[in-house]
Amino acid sequence: MKRVPQVVRPPDLPERVTIYEVGPRDGLQNESTVVPVEVKADFISRLAAVGLQAIEVTSFVHPAWVPQLADAGELVEAVDLDAVPRMPVLVPNQRGLDRALEAGVREIAIFGSATEAFAQRNLNRSLDGQFAMFEPVVTGARDAGLRVRGYLSMCFGDPWEGDVPVAQVVSTGRRLLELGCSELSLGDTIGVGTPGHVEAVIGGFADAGVPVEQLAVHFHDTFGQALSNALTALRLGVTTFDASAGGLGGCPYAESATGNLATEDLVWQLAGLGVETGVDLQALVATTWWMAERIGKPPASRVATALR
Questions:
Q1: Distance CA 267, CA 246 (A)
Q2: Is 83 inside a domain boundary?
Q3: By the 8 A CB rule, do 48 and 84 touch?
Q4: Contact yes or no for 241/216 (Cβ under 8 A)
Q5: Is the residue at 6 inside a domain?
Q6: How many independent structural domains does the chain possess?
Q7: What is the pLDDT of residues 11-52, one digit of tens each?
Q8: pLDDT tens by residue, 49-89
Q9: Are the C-beta atoms of 188 and 155 separated by less than 8 Å?
């Protein structure tokens, strides 16, 4: 018998959520094993087949910064950008946007920082200076009819600056939304957040007049808090959750950052809560193990291990 969680649905939870799968981009960018473009394309096709509605394909970043994604242009040509409703790519600058437009991408994401230190290290810009870089990218994308997602990293702690004030996170995030981002993903880049902290940050955006519908969450599991943090966000009305098949990923610029919240673990939790995702969990587990064999290491996902 295939094991599934017993459903006990608490009141006042969203009926359905979107899982924004970041495995092909955020998941693979930090792998030491070079993954052939054909395998990446197959991975994306398999993820689409399990019922995911949003899959971030790659990043048009300079190969010197992220060698694992040097094949971004070739990969975008190899995948069906109509396979699921959302197939975004990350773009770092105007050149990245130009490449995305040439490739026929319908959605892009930009990657900002809530702290000065990470903006300097990741973007070679100041905290304020990053917005001058993003403004023409967002404007150009919106003028071309593209949807724009904004990532905000270091929302719950920074390895160089330490604690990050909630007010600073909120003010920086609002600036990304005011530029024209339709969705803001709040990143716990080094995985130090806890449920009370998540409540404070999401509450801060609510107090600032930002609708919860515009917020997504992106949790790393460095300290084992990703699932509890996701449940907290769910109870506060968040309906878009970033996750990575098998828990792949990390951040090449953040010390001690481990993998993302595993998609399988999130799907199991949501299934037990009676929240729809549209994802076939057994098929997802099979896809995760298929990818694990190709990169030569087992998945970090507890559910993928338990259901194998």
A1: 12
A2: yes
A3: yes
A4: yes
A5: no
A6: 1
A7: 999 999 999 999 999 999 888 888 999 999 999 999 999 999
A8: 999 999 999 999 888 788 889 999 999 999 999 999 999 99
A9: yes
Return the closest-CA partner of residue 46 out of 78, 83, 90: 83
Active-site residue numbers?
A: 251
Q: Is 232 exposed, middle or buried (0-12, 13-18, 19+ CB in 10 A)?
A: buried
pLDDT of residue 66: 85
- Write down the pLDDT at residue 63: 83
Q: How many whole angstroms separate alpha carbon 303 and alpha carbon 281?
A: 9
111 Rama sector, left if φ>0, alpha if ψ -120 to 50, beta otherwise: beta
Is the distance from CB of 262 to CB of 243 less than 8 angstroms?
Answer: yes
* Residue in this structure with the two tokens 């309906």, named with its chain if needed: 239
CA distance 165 to 281: 37
Given a cut of 50, the residues of the chain with pLDDT beneath it are none
Distance separating alpha carbons of residues 306 and 308, to the nearest angstrom: 6
Q: Structure pTM? A: 0.96
Distance CA 289, CA 47 (A): 12
Q: Do 230 and 241 form a contact (C-beta atoms < 8 A)? A: yes
Angstrom distance (rounded) from CA 248 to CA 207: 34
Q: In three state form, how does the secondary structure of the chain look?
A: CCCCCCCCCCCCCCCECEEEECHHHHHCCCCCCCCCHHHHHHHHHHHHHCCCCEECCCECCCCCCCHHHCCHHHHHHHCCCCCCCECCEECCCHHHHHHHHHHCCCEEEEEEECCHHHHHHHHCCCCCHHHHHHHHHHHHHHHCCCEEEEEEECCCCECCCECCCHHHHHHHHHHHHHHCCCEEEEEECCCCCCHHHHHHHHHHHHHCCCCHHHEEEEEECCCCCHHHHHHHHHHCCCCEEEEEHHHCCCCCCCCCCCCECEHHHHHHHHHHCCCECCCCHHHHHHHHHHHHHHHCCCCCCHHHHHHC
CATH code of 125's domain: 3.20.20.70
The answer to whether 57 touches 78, Cβ cutoff 8 Å, is no
